[in-house]
Specification:
2 copies of one chain form a homodimer. Chain A is of the alpha/beta class. Helices cover about 35% and strands about 25% of the residues of chain A. In chain A, the strands form 3 sheets. In chain A, strands 2-1-3-8-7-6 form a 6-stranded mixed β-sheet, with helices on both faces. A 4-stranded antiparallel β-sheet of chain A has the order 10-11-9-12, covered by helices on one side. A two-stranded antiparallel ribbon of chain A has the order 4-5. Chain A starts with 9 loop residues before the first strand and ends with a strand. Chains A and B meet through helix 1, helix 2, strand 2, helix 8 and strand 10 of A and helix 1, helix 2, strand 2, helix 8 and strand 10 of B. Strand 2 of chain A pairs antiparallel with strand 2 of chain B, so a sheet runs across the interface.
Chain lengths: ~260, ~260
């Protein structure tokens, strides 16, 4: 079932900008960490898109996703080279000029003081859409950028993590989604009706079924999600009891 | 630069359907394998979306992506449980009924002959949008589904891989993208102009810059992509020579 009637659900989208993901060269590491961090803030990651380093593709995606969700996070394309066009694409998509942010320039001047100086290429990393504010980056100088409800972050996972960390507690959200896992050595198709009826019986609960085949045996983990600890606990008990009644012992916390 | 003027570029999108990716519970493993397989077929993965197990979200995405690209691949949501709604969502999005495909039913009857029989839940996996054809699944019985230019595959990576394998050589494509990597112990910002001018000088070439920081040293890998081996080789040589001229030895095949 969907969320309870009185519950305001805050949603976010993540836009991953990078040919290296679409070519299969690089395995994305940002979806999971952004998803988990967002949930702690009470915000649900509702959609992810990956687009290439292309002005139009980025522009279309940010206009669409920024309008559909409370928050939009982007990763990638904010470095000093020719393929780093995220800021330009977002500014163009919203019809605002790109300016050099004075505070970002000062951060970079300081950072590169002992690293060869602030060149023209490095100064690219101080460019923001007009009206933006900065997101602190304690690792590598170049800051992230907040423009309206869009949070522009680095693609390198540990730098993205630091930018998320500096945003912790600053975004309005709702109730985090709580989850619990019940494992069972059963083919999910054997207890499909039980899963569906249990989900229907608990308002605001979703049950996901994740089958596996290990050491010659078929099993599945059932992930129950709710914003209410009481409802979650009740649903876990009901599902576990139902599995036992069907002759399949439930394994608490999953297999 | 973009592709050569006379080159027809075939593109595909990948739609990943699954709350488990959006919650951060499961790390996606399909983007990279689909991207690499597509490139061998001469098709470029141009966009990826991840949406939740929701009829409207899936429907909106398949209509949008299926119309924008030559091919659309989906992963996830084709099992026997209540959260497996991909076929229903795609059929609804295109206004066609869902039918039980006779050949899929026969495949499942055979597969479950020694596995407890074909129950109603298992028969869900024979359901397809009317007009669809099957994609062979040599691992676990339940087939994939081709509906127009949409290829509906399992989310489990090794089953998705088997479905891709059964499609190998059957899709029309263009020239595969060839790539080569040049590594260098340099801060990418030091040679940003060289990267941009080298990319501009070779038609149809893209150069991606992927910096790293290892063992206290700053470096980067530059990935050069082209559909022409000659152009690729020439560009690799030009970039390597340019790096050497700037005092930074190039490392063939990357660091």
């Amino acid at each position: 079932m969907t969320a309870g009637a009185n519950e305001r659900v805050w949603t976010a989208a993540l836009l991953i900008i990078g040919d290296e993901i679409l070519s299969g060269r690089t395995q994305d590491k940002n979806v999971a960490q952004v998803a988990i961090w967002l949930n702690i803030q009470g915000i649900r990651l509702s959609e992810v898109r990956v687009v290439s380093d292309n002005m139009d593709a980025i522009g279309d995606a940010v206009r669409s996703l920024g309008g559909q969700h409370d928050y939009l996070f982007t990763t990638g394309g904010i470095g000093p080279t020719h393929d780093d066009i995220t800021v330009d694409a977002i500014a163009a998509a919203f019809g605002v000029p790109v300016i050099v942010h004075p505070e970002a320039r000062a951060v970079l001047e300081d950072y590169y003081l002992t690293r060869g100086g602030l060149t023209e290429a490095r100064l690219r990393m101080a460019r923001v859409p007009e009206g933006a504010v900065l997101i602190e980056n304690r690792y590598s100088g170049a800051p992230g950028v907040q423009f309206g409800n869009i949070f522009i972050m680095a693609g390198v996972p540990h730098i993205a993590a630091a930018m998320l960390d500096s945003l912790t507690g600053t975004l309005e959200g709702g109730l985090p989604v709580l989850s619990a896992t019940v494992g069972c050595w059963v083919a999910e198709s054997e207890i499909a009706d039980l899963l569906a009826s249990t989900e229907r019986a608990y308002e605001g609960v979703q049950i996901g079924s994740y089958p596996f085949f290990r050491e010659g045996k078929t099993g599945a983990n059932f992930v129950i999600r709710s914003t209410s600890q009481t409802v979650l606990d009740d649903c876990v008990k009901a599902l576990s009891d139902g599995l036992e009644a069907d002759g399949f012992p439930a394994v608490a916390d999953g297999i």
